[in-house]
């Protein structure tokens, strides 16, 4: 298939930033080599590559779980073979902006669990913090290693119609998706082995090495080989593939709550050779299930007494307990003020304009303009529980408004952002589909490192703005160019 055939079938979405085409319908320079390569391939050849990718995902167990009516359905994670490309200049801006944001968010967490200067100075209202279900009084004045609360962050970025990058949300608790970033790259190497070096694509494979280095550095015991474990809820968790992948790549033990116990304020792992003291826990268990003696007493996913060991400084937990207050969607709107307050800098990455529905005037405005809004729960995830005003029926809007009125604090609204579009190989042709980007940042004693890439999620349904895998989305490899 020649280049003209591909371009004839590709129709950019109106009023949307297209990652491949400029406003004058010229191919952007970063995509030119990819298009030149594709023009030498037939549609049948690309379809075979698409089938190979599916088979590789299946054979390697690269799946996720969709929960419907309480039952988990395991699915292959949809993968689009056409890469998403980011220029070196754009990546430099993204990297600096995320580092700035995380410095402020980490300082915010330290502040609100100690002096609360940002509240006393009237920057963030006290009721916004105290009404957040993830603000944990149990963390007040708890000393965390090196004052690092956010060790791993996934910051979701989108681009508006003019190409401006916006932060959609901050994921600071147990951010997922990094295994798909790593596997997407491995599969792309199989599909297009010559194209990656030709385009000077930067590597993402160093992520496990950086994470392991950071985990080693925060061990409470100053020993040459601290014991590090990855605590998983188990094989029925939607991200279990990721847990197994990261544990294997780092060479650490994958454990569940039943594999650990606490004695004399120290955490031990049960092994065939007896108990072994644990120094660092990379946990993928949410706060509320972490310790049944402190949080949910019915939890069997965590470890009884783990919080006492944590508070005594005998074990490090990654990410820190209580981080959810900083990625609450009601707190999100105050991050630009945090950056100015703590760093005395102007925010580099913009927030999407956000309305707090706990504010009466803002709620009235949103209700009057709800057809142009996306309304979300402040602690929702996975694309569940959202109202997309531009496609909702009158009945859906009425029911959602009634739900909001029960507890307005638990909802925010944002104007509908277009989301940029990138080319996807669908039905033997290229078509534009909406995308976002989740870069992964690793924070350690030596600073913040961001792997050059991330998880590009794709809304595979035509016209859809929802990229979540649980809502029919997929992903594609993210290429950051070296120059």
TrEMBL record:
Circularly permuted ATP-grasp type domain span: 83-459
SUPFAM superfamilies cross-referenced by the UniProt entry: Glutathione synthetase ATP-binding domain-like (SSF56059)
Cited Pfam families: CP_ATPgrasp_2 (PF14403)
Protein's recorded name: Protein containing domains DUF404, DUF407
